[in-house]
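Reopening: structure tokens for the manganese (II) ion complex, inputs below.
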Amino acid sequence: MIHTPSRNEQITRSRSVERQVTGNVTTDGAGVKLTRVLTQSLQRRLDPFLMLDAFGSDQPDDYLGGFPDHPHRGFETITYMIAGRMRHRDSAGHEGLLENGGVQWMTAGRGVIHSEIPQQEEGVMEGFQLWLNLPARDKMIAPWYRDFTAADLPGFTTGAGVTVTVIAGESHGVTGAVTREATAPLYLDLHLPAGARFTQLLPAGHNAFAYVYRGEVSIAGSLIPAQCMAILANDASADGVAIDTLGEANVLLIAGRPLNEPIAHYGPFVMNTNQEIYQALNDLRNGRLA
Ligand code: MN
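Re-run output (same inputs, fresh job):
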């Protein structure tokens, strides 16, 4: 859905880059090769975000196994497919085909068991999976699921020629596909032409990061290369971020309000206490998770 931006988001001072992170190359599921950009050690710093995985390969052996049946409880997963086709099925009865430019938003809540299986035997598979925490009061809510095709996702182009897809939150007066009250997540995919600047207002208390997946950008004087995440400083005197390019670049810009609650993370479960993790394991063992 193409929208007209209702306001030009002017900022007075950009956040600076606190740290650059390249992540860890690893495998998950049935041997899917990926880069874990946001790792467990950054969960406090980037609260309410728990994980960001980037996957991208034209070698079928890197992705064919997919992610067979596995459980989740206590948070939300947001899968953004840049290229490729993946089929999702879950225990709540949801099924969907995720492909080129589509987003799948799944709230695991009290529990789902799902599979994510590639529907291609060759070609490029590229995308991202972001984990967003749920507040303690919502961890045991009923599961929820939505598929958005590329055409379903709100988007706009700025005066500087930056194409913006608003997966969550609000940018330049355009409201995203999903909004969440507790964590107010912002999730933008930015396609910047050469020599462009993109500005986005960010509440000072919200944690924010940018992940450059093509090209390179400059943020407040720091050069951020491709496949690098820039953690943006929570500078009280900055009211947003300005992202500049020399050449073309593609960037995910992600921000949210921290929950400031205890995080107990074990595999596919993210709760507040170890007791709740044991409960999840017991529920899974006894067939009560989903
Ligand atoms: Mn999963």
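Residues 67, 70, 72, 77, 114, 116 surround manganese (II) ion (CB under 6 Å). The chain is about 5% helix and 50% strand. Marking as resolved unless the reporter disagrees.
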